[in-house]
Design brief:
The protein has about 425 residues and is mostly helical. Helices cover about 75% and strands about 0% of the residues. It folds into two domains: about 45 residues, no CATH class; about 375 residues, no CATH class. The longest helix has about 35 residues.
Length: about 425
């Protein structure tokens, strides 16, 4: 009875507009109180303990740092210089600007672990440029929103950090390495329909007449941005610093580039940057800590074992269960953000992963690919929300364009399921 009330209370609170973190915490606390009605304080002393336990984990320190990195590089002018360099490489023509948007978003994914920050940085530059070239605003918003979804696959990734905290068998370096090849494949998969749609519908008619930036000049201007992922990922691979320390290094590198090299960030801008990143980080970490209360209530009420047995004994088999989980998570991803999905479902799914002896790193990549799909799947698509706001269009207008890109990234997820080595080869090769 109480487990049923736990989920009913959570769903009802979400439907009436209660924030996801508060709904998780309140539902969990109510279930704990009802289950311990005879105990002193109704067992609620476990609530603050689990609130702190959910937050007091070393890997989580990287989240506010990488969020801050995203905000810094958003204002530093790095995105514009990377765009000019990419245009200098691929040239002008129908479909070239969408390709540039996806390539730059993938590259910025190696600097910041935040999809919405990536969408804001790329969208601020590319949507205006694509509009001048004759691309419809809804199409431009779709491309940028989809491209930014590669951010959580290409390291560093906030999603992988949260997953590593929830799953002891999956280290952050191994997850970072595992996400690299699927992230690149996802970017390539997005380029194909983006270019095809642009040429089929004869978009970007004015693009061919626009000047092509000189190669060497744009390369020199983009050098500091190009060096950022090398510094972050190369430093981690060389053992110079941990992923958490890499985030701190990236913050100071971004400030140096923005304040000293490009001089696009002034001292007076620092307060705004710190406030914005602090607010976003607080929201993420608050949801993480409140989800700890929900997870504790799940484990103490004995919800996880019956659910696991029901799924395992459903007669669907290993791949049938995996297909069921993907359909479930894609549906949920239309309404919940990625971090919330991880926090709610990983404790429920982990016994199933153990039963079928799935590799936890591989399963983390599959789950993150699904979350990436959710980031630009209407109606609650955080990346698409950002790009639509920049483009000044309603999300409904993007459906005809974004559907093809969703299908392309879905095929990448299917490929990683069929060939697990797409995710596992690189971490095995690097010795993680």
């Amino acid at each position: 009875m109480i487990p049923t009330l736990l989920f009913v209370a959570f769903i009802v609170m979400m439907l009436v507009g209660v924030p996801i973190g508060a709904a998780l915490g309140l539902a969990g606390a109510a279930a704990i109180a009802l289950a311990n009605a005879d105990a002193q304080w109704f067992g609620l002393l476990a609530v603050p303990q689990n609130f702190y336990a959910g937050l007091g984990k070393y890997p989580l320190l990287a989240i506010p740092m990488f969020v801050l990195v995203g905000s810094i590089f958003d204002r530093s002018g790095v995105a514009l210089r990377l765009v000019n360099f990419a245009v200098a490489i691929v040239g002008r023509g129908s479909g070239m600007l969408p390709m540039v948007a996806i390539l730059v978003a993938m590259f910025l994914g190696g600097i910041s672990g935040s999809g919405p920050a990536n969408a804001a940085a790329v969208g601020a530059v590319m949507i205006a440029a694509m509009s001048r070239a004759g691309y419809p605003p809804a199409y431009s918003a779709s491309v940028v929103g989809a491209a930014a979804a590669t951010d959580i696959l290409i390291p560093p990734s906030v999603a992988f950090i949260v997953y590593s905290v929830l799953v002891p068998g999956a280290s952050v370096p191994a997850l970072f390495a595992a996400g690299m090849i699927p992230g690149i494949l996802a970017g390539v998969a997005l380029i194909v329909p983006a270019v095809w749609m642009a040429r089929k519908h004869k978009m970007g008619a004015l693009e061919s007449s626009m000047p092509r930036p000189p190669f060497w000049k744009s390369f020199r201007e983009a050098t500091w941005g190009l060096a950022a992922p090398v510094l972050i990922l190369g430093g981690m691979r060389a053992g110079l610093f941990t992923p958490t320390e890499a985030a701190v290094v990236a913050v100071f590198y971004g400030l140096f580039v923005g304040m000293v090299i490009h001089r696009t960030i002034k001292v007076r801008d620092l307060f705004t940057i710190l406030r914005e990143s602090g607010e976003l980080s607080a929201v993420i970490l608050l949801v993480v800590s409140l989800a700890g209360i929900f997870a504790y209530s799940l484990s103490t009420l004995g919800v996880i074992d019956p659910v696991t047995r029901a799924i395992v004994n459903s007669g669907l088999g290993e791949y049938g269960v995996l297909a069921l989980l993907i359909v479930l998570l894609i549906t949920v991803g239309m309404f919940l953000d990625g971090v919330s999905i991880f926090l709610i479902f990983v404790p429920l799914l982990w016994p199933i992963v153990q039963h079928y002896k799935w590799d936890p790193v591989w399963f983390g990549v599959i789950l993150t690919l699904k979350v990436a799909l959710g980031q630009f799947t209407p109606p609650l698509a955080v990346n698409l929300m950002v790009s639509c706001r920049i483009a000044g269009v309603r999300m409904e207008e993007t459906v005809r364009w974004v559907g093809w890109m969703l299908f392309a990234m879905f095929l990448v997820m299917v490929a990683v399921i069929i060939w697990p080595q797409l995710a596992l080869w690189l971490p095995n090769y690097l010795g993680y």
